[in-house]
Amino acid sequence: MSEREPLRVLVTGGAGYIGSFTVRALQEAGHEVVVFDNLRYGHRAAVDCPLIVGELADRDVVFSAIADGRFDAVFHLAAYTSVRESVEDPAKYVRHNIGGAINLLDACLAYEVPWVVYSSTSEVYGEARYLPLDENHPTEPANPYGASKLAVEEFLRWYDQAYGLRSISLRYFNAAGAALDGSLGEDHRPEEHLIPNAIRGALGLQAFRLTSPRVDTPDGTTIRDYVHVLDLAEAHLLALQALRRGHPTDVINLGSGVGYSTRQVIELVQEITGVEFPIEPGEPRPGEPPVKYASYAKAERVLGWRPRYGLEEIIRSAVLWHQRFPHGYPE
Ligand SMILES: NC(=O)c1ccc[n+]([C@@H]2O[C@H](COP(=O)([O-])OP(=O)(O)OC[C@H]3O[C@@H](n4cnc5c(N)ncnc54)[C@H](O)[C@@H]3O)[C@@H](O)[C@H]2O)c1
Ligand SMILES: O=c1ccn([C@@H]2O[C@H](COP(=O)(O)OP(=O)(O)O[C@H]3O[C@H](CO)[C@H](O)[C@H](O)[C@H]3O)[C@@H](O)[C@H]2O)c(=O)[nH]1
Known about the structure:
Keywords: Carbohydrate metabolism, Isomerase, NAD. By secondary structure, this protein is α/β, with parallel strands linked by helices. It has helices spanning 17-28, 59-69, 83-88, 90-110, 144-163, 194-202, 229-244, 262-273, 297-303, 311-324; strands at 8-12, 32-37, 51-53, 73-76, 115-121, 166-172, 174-176, 208-210, 223-224, 226-228, 250-254, 260-261, 279-281. Galactose-uridine-5'-diphosphate binds at residues 81, 83, 121-123, 173-174, 192-194, 197, 209-212, 222, 224, 262, 285, 288.
């Protein structure tokens, strides 16, 4: 099969934030896509392709989705993603993020799907021992969410060794931004991420609360690496091409390489929107690492990927989305 021939790809979590952009990128590249999502956080309106509404933890449902599909690849993005919830209810993260993923991988083996692209996270590293974080940094997740994502990465390695299932795990840093025309965007209910919450503060949709703990950084707020969701979607296509070329099972960081403090992000949202919304004190989130940002040298070397968009374009696109859809996707 030539590297350009269209493939059939199942995207789990494809109705969610990053998934919906990845689905669109696959479709634009000519691939045939089916989405599998339980719609707990995803939205039907975010998807323009066949959608299987199903639960990953239900092994029979997962097996029948794969059995019916004749898929060439699976992009596995579905997961629960709240650090706070994972600390309160770790069992949920074992059952869905680990158990659900294992159901999916077993179905891939049963129906000979050769390639998996997996959504991992910078949370696998825990607190940074050095910066920028590269893929050789020790993995010491500080919460059950990060532990669940790392466990799947590790089993992907074992599944390749034992059964020959090849995969690339993409360790995203902080995904943010929207389609440049504001047609797709981030709609989590409830929303926990900084950029959408600051924009909602600027648009008068809700009060903005600072939940960053006081940390040892120049302005005392946490520092993060924001990467445009369009850049993430592009990286998934490049990972698929790498697998088609025969690249071995691997893990790759996806970040912008630049760290911005929470206060800098808030101030940039204020500047771009022209609204000096109040910053109300919130309950500091426990266990947040003070600083993280990525080295994306490996993504550049292996995938030929580098981020196209910076923080300003991230915020401008997200503002457009929130202005067009202040109440999110129509249900
Ligand atoms: N948003 C980020 O900054 C970020 C950073 C690093 C990694 N990630 C990873 O990227 C992936 C996508 O994240 P997102 O921000 O788009 O989240 P999201 O909640 O918008 O998307 C996840 C989707 O998966 C679905 N889902 C969750 N559990 C499921 C299950 N058991 N069965 C079926 N469907 C299920 C949800 O309904 C949702 O549509 C996740 O795997 C997450 O761990 C996200
Ligand atoms: O309304 C808000 C939202 C966030 N923050 C603060 O802004 C910083 C960034 O918060 P985000 O929730 O946007 O990002 P995190 O780095 O805390 O975590 C996110 O990115 C990780 C990957 O790097 C994981 O995927 C995780 O699930 C996801 O929530 C944190 O200090 C947070 O306390 C606020 O002050 N107010």
